[in-house]
Amino acid sequence: MSQLQRHGITVALACGLLLASHRASAAEHYGQVSFTGLAIPGVTVTASQGAAQTTTSTDAQGIFHLPTLDDGLWTIRVEMVGFASLEREVTVGPETPSSTWALTFLSFDEITPPTTMAAVRPAGPSAPR
Question: Is the pTM of this model over 0.70?
Answer without folding.
Answer: no
